[in-house]
Design brief:
The radius of gyration is 23 Å and the shape is globular. By secondary structure, the chain is α/β, with parallel strands linked by helices. The chain has helices at residues 13-24, 46-49, 62-69, 88-94, 123-130, 155-165, 178-186, 207-211, 225-235, 241-255, 338-341, 349-363, 374-378, 388-403, 415-423, and strands at 2-9, 30-38, 74-78, 97-100, 106-107, 120-122, 147-151, 191-195, 220-222, 264-268, 272-277, 284-289, 292-297, 300-303, 307-308, 317-318, 321-322, 328-330, 333-335. The chain has a six-stranded mixed beta sheet, with helices on both faces. Strands 6-14-7-8-10-9 form a six-stranded parallel beta sheet. Helix 1 packs across helix 12 (349-363), helix 9 (225-235) packs antiparallel against helix 10 and helix 14 crosses helix 15 (415-423). The longest helix has 16 residues, at 388-403. Bound molecules: NADP nicotinamide-adenine-dinucleotide phosphate (NAP). NADP nicotinamide-adenine-dinucleotide phosphate (NAP) is lined by residues 110, 151-157, 159, 196-198, 202, 204, 206, 209, 273, 304-306, 343-346.
């Protein structure tokens, strides 16, 4: 039997689905030994650090990831950063193929004046903060004002808007970072606006996320009836299916009577941001609208306008992804997920996407390389590897710490703490 060694860089959904696709392509003649590299001691990528804590159902896909990880010839090599602890060229030397699955972790910027003002924050940082990503727990965010504006009309803007507007009591039973949860309990933000630069017919929200909004007990979710009826007429008689369901969900929201609670989540359309104003911190934002310029006061501004990749060695960033041709970067080097196609689609989108790329990867394999196990070399000062057993210990301890408080888990927020648990037999 030929056993090919494959390195997957990044333990998020795209990485796991690539591993699963490879496992499914095994036969009596061919097998794959998969090493999954992850820079954090904890895997699962956006399922741990991106999905909103009040959407626990979406996180159940982690069970699938653990099944993949516990299959034969799979190793998690956590707390090892590719590009720092080991280079892509070394991986290419030791493995039959290398698959980049590192996502697109940085927020795009608006490119308008005032973006550098205090309390103008990217969703990339804010989402990592409330989800307990260890690198973002000291986020400089001030929640003492009353008004927050979120720029963008995608599901991330909606997650951010909900997290800011919700009564934090509703987050007590979730796995929100303990630091963020404490801060959200002290927050005086009550009016949150999600602002789209185009009409509702162009919004990138998805219907299931919109449909749940009227059921949020602690928030009055508002949309102007005129905004939605004009969008419905602009969309014409045969809008695409997703536009039709979105507009239907928005029509229901716009027609739902206010509950009269103290928290509001307002949606504004056709407001294109042109300047952020303030002396040292954000005080207001100016929009171009069909009626002319409009300035809205705000104490906090979060931009949720998409993501871009980080600079990784020699890889060429092409807009919002790494340059590639159908997932192939160069001979033996592949890319999957958001790093391949940009930040779009839901978690499941990565499954078919990764399966296609892995099929062409496998089709191009020759004979397996005979190379030394990279783990032997990685065992050097300054590198502490968290393997699957170490991660299992972190995972179990987090779940155990959550049990007494009826939470799915209480996340460790410091890497050192995670390493201590991982290393304790
Ligand atoms: P997205 O869906 O691409 O939405 C980005 C939004 O930013 C768009 O409304 C876009 O408007 C707006 N935008 C871009 N540049 C702008 C600018 N200069 N000024 C004002 N607005 C600007 O991206 P996302 O919300 O980051 O989500 C990424 C992916 O993750 C999406 O596929 C999303 O569905 C998915 N996701 C899913 C869930 C879930 O299933 N619950 C949760 C979170 C994320 P234009 O259309 O006008 O460019």
């Amino acid at each position: 039997m030929k056993i090919f060694k494959i390195a997957i860089v990044g333990a998020g959904p795209a990485g796991y689905f690539a591993a699963q696709a490879l496992q499914n392509l095994q036969s009596d003649e061919t097998a794959f030994a998969i090493d999954m590299f992850e820079r954090l001691p904890t895997p699962w990528g956006l399922v741990r650090s991106g999905v909103a804590p009040d959407h626990p159902k979406i996180k159940t896909v982690s069970k699938v990831f653990e099944k993949i990880a516990n299959s034969e010839r799979f190793r998690l090599i956590g707390n090892v950063e590719v590009g720092r602890d080991v280079m892509i060229s070394t991986l290419q030397d030791r493995y039959d193929a290398v698959v980049i699955a590192v996502g697109t972790p940085h927020g795009r910027s608006l490119g308008i004046p005032g973006e550098g003002l205090k309390n103008v924050i990217s969703s990339a940082d804010f989402v990592y903060w409330y989800n307990g990503h260890p690198d973002y727990q000291n986020l400089d965010i001030d929640l003492t004002g009353t008004k927050a504006i979120v720029i963008g009309a995608g599901n991330v803007a909606m997650d951010v808007g909900r997290m800011l507007a919700l009564d934090p009591k509703e987050l007590d039973k979730t796995d929100t970072s303990e630091i963020a949860l404490r801060r959200l309990h002290q927050s005086s933000i009550r009016d949150v606006s999600i602002v789209a630069r185009r009409g509702a017919e162009h919004a990138a929200f998805t219907a299931p996320e919109l449909r749940e909004l009227p059921d949020l007990e602690s928030i009055d979710v508002t949309m102007k009836v005129d905004d939605i009826t004009s969008a419905i007429s602009r969309a014409g008689t045969e809008p695409e299916k997703h536009v039709k369901s979105n507009l239907e969900a928005m029509r229901l929201i716009s027609e739902t009577p206010a509950k009269g609670v103290s928290r509001e989540l307002e949606f504004l359309f056709q407001h294109k941001p042109i300047a952020i104003n303030g002396s040292d911190r954000v005080e207001s934002i100016t929009f171009e609208t069909p009626e002319g310029e409009v300035t809205k006061e705000c104490d906090l501004l979060v931009t949720a306008i998409g993501y871009k990749p980080h600079a990784l060695e020699e890889l060429t960033v092409d807009g919002n992804h790494y340059r590639n041709q159908d997932g192939e970067i160069s001979n033996g080097l592949y890319v999957v997920g958001w790093a391949k196609r940009g930040p779009s689609g839901v978690i499941g989108t990565n499954k078919s996407d990764a399966a296609d790329v892995m099929k062409s990867l496998v089709a191009k394999l020759g004979d397996p390389k005979t190379s030394q196990d990279l783990l032997l070399e990685l065992n050097k000062p300054g590198v502490v590897i968290v393997d699957q057993a170490g991660w299992n210990r972190i995972n179990m301890k987090e779940v155990e710490n959550g049990e007494a408080r009826e939470k799915p888990r209480v996340k460790f927020l410091e890497i050192q703490e995670m390493l201590e648990i991982a290393g304790s037999e």
